[in-house]
């Protein structure tokens, strides 16, 4: 849309300035001729008047006629013209008065008053003309300034209209729903995407409170109230809302405050991003991932159970063949007991993984937990020629966690490190530090490391490089940390492996 101009433009005609100057010069020349001619004619009439009673009356009339060219000169040329015309009228008047027979005694008071009147009239009307000319000039300058300001304002108005149209086009084009609310929380505007998402037209929304746009708002109205009250500069949440028409939508909501240039709160902008398709796809991927994990778990369980059962079967056959050979019977019985113990470990690990106990969250000192773990494992580490060094930060915030389950996490990591270096020896370093809103626990060793192809599998169920291992230790570690809203990362090269555990720091009371 192209906005119309606010008024008719002033377009000067080509060469009009030159024409006006020429016209003004001709007018002034004509005025000079008229003024000089009038002064000459009046002077001639005044001189030619007879020295009779009637002539004296005519002289009185003629001297008053001098005022006409004086006034004309003053209005045409200003103060200078008025004074010049006054003098031009006074000189012949004074000369005629001095030479007249009736003025043998010299200039009378009346005659001097007449000359003074000429000068006063010339000065008065000339000053008035100059004043009017200055006012006209000032008005012309003011008019020019107003026209320039008007043109600038007109351009600014056109720019604002164009910006408004451009912004409206953007709001119409974007796929996210955008709703603006006033300081009282009522809807002010809504773009087409918001209309489609909420199943309502903008006319139906304005000026209803935003809470009435939904059957279930998922906390959106509370976020808007907090932002408008100044408690939050911006609020973001991912939630599920139910519209007034009963349609359920999973949305990513962002609410931010609108302020004027002076800081006055104008309202808030609510942006709604429909995440329903993404959530459905995510849920589908999670289900597929769970099915894949279940398949791997089933295969692992079958493998872990089949091997001991095969050994037990062979041992039973050996017992049947042994008859009364006590040595062979004892040997087979020992193998059976070992395999049963192995099955028991696998089943116990599966129970720990499949039926995890809920953590009892208390304020826990991570350093104290680690000191206990190091104390438990120091003798076992010494047997493998492994030393454990501690570098614990003494200014560490507490965490909300279950101390027993955290001990299980760190005990598993330290034990794995000791077993990786058993025989060859090495060093384990246990370190703690505060990192933003988290407490980090770093457990590193100088062992042989984990190969690049095996590194992504270390947390998978039943993945192990030790014959006697179940492959569920790090999987249980991962699950416990998930329950504590923490996470674990692993780095490894040709030598040395580092596990970094991050736990949220407890909020100060």
Précis, in short:
This protein is an alpha+beta fold and 509 residues long. The protein has helices spanning 16-48, 53-65, 67-99, 109-173, 192-198, 202-205, 220-229, 276-322, 326-354, 366-383, 403-421, 473-483; strands at residues 177-181, 187-190, 214-216, 234-243, 248-259, 265-274, 362-364, 386-391, 399-401, 426-435, 438-445, 487-492, 497-504.
Global shape: rod-shaped
Number of helices: 12
Helix content: 55-70%
Q: How far apart lie the N and C ends?
A: 59 Å
Number of strands: 13
Using only C-alpha atoms, the radius of gyration works out to 53 Å
Structural class based on helices, strands and sheet pairing: alpha+beta
Query: Main β-sheet, in a few words?
Result: 6 strands, antiparallel
What is the overall pLDDT average? 78
Uncertain segments: 1-15, 101-105
The main sheet orders its strands as: 2-1-6-5-4-3
- Note the run of SSEs as H and E: HHHHEEHHEHEEEHHEHEEHEEHEE
Strand content: 15-25%
């Amino acid at each position: 849309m192209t906005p119309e101009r606010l008024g008719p433009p002033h377009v000067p005609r080509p060469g009009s300035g030159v024409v006006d100057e020429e016209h003004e010069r001709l007018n002034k020349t004509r005025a000079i001729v008229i003024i000089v001619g009038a002064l000459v004619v009046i002077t001639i009439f005044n001189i030619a008047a007879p020295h009779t009673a009637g002539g004296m009356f005519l002289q009185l009339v003629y001297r008053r006629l001098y005022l006409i060219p004086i006034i004309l000169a003053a209005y045409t040329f200003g103060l200078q013209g008025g004074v010049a015309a006054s003098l031009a009228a006074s000189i012949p008047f004074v000369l005629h008065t001095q030479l007249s027979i009736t003025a043998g005694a010299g200039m009378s008071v009346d005659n001097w008053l007449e000359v003074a009147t000429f000068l006063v009239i010339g000065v008065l009307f000339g000053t008035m003309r100059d004043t009017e000319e200055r006012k006209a000039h000032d008005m012309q300058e003011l008019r020019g300034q107003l026209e320039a300001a008007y043109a600038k304002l007109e351009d600014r108005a056109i720019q604002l209209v164009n910006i408004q149209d451009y912004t409206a086009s953007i709001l119409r084009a974007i796929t996210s729903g955008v709703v603006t609310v006033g300081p009282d929380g009522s809807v002010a505007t809504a773009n087409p995407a918001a209309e489609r998402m909420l199943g309502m037209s903008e006319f139906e929304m304005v000026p209803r409170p935003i809470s009435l746009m939904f059957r279930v708002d998922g906390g959106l109205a509370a976020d808007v109230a907090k932002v408008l009250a100044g408690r939050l500069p911006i609020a973001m949440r991912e939630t599920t809302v139910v519209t007034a028409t009963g349609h359920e939508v999973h949305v990513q909501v962002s609410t931010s405050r609108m302020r004027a240039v002076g800081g006055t709160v104008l309202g808030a902008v609510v942006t709604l991003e429909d995440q329903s398709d993404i959530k459905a796809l995510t849920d589908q991927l999670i289900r597929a991932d769970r099915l894949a994990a279940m398949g791997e778990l089933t295969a692992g369980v079958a493998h872990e159970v089949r091997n001991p059962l095969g050994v037990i079967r062979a041992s039973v056959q050996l017992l049947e063949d042994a008859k009364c050979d006590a040595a062979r019977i004892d040997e087979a019985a020992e193998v059976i007991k070992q395999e049963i113990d192995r099955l028991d470990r696998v089943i116990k690990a599966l129970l720990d993984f499949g039926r995890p106990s809920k953590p009892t969250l208390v304020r826990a000192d991570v350093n104290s937990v680690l000191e206990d773990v190091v104390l438990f494992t120091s003798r076992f580490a010494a047997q493998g020629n492994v030393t454990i060094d501690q570098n614990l930060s003494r200014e560490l915030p507490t965490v909300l966690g279950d101390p027993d389950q955290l001990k299980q996490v760190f005990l598993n990591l330290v034990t794995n490190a000791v077993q990786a270096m058993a025989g060859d020896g090495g060093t384990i370093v246990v370190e703690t530090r505060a990192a933003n809103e988290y407490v980090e626990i770093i457990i590193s060793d100088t062992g042989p490391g984990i190969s690049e192809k095996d590194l992504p599998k270390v947390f998978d169920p039943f993945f192990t490089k030790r014959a006697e291992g179940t492959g569920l230790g790090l999987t249980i570690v991962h699950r416990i940390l998930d329950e504590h809203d923490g996470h674990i990362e692993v780095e490894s090269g040709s030598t040395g492996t580092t596990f970094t555990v991050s736990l949220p720091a407890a909020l100060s009371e």
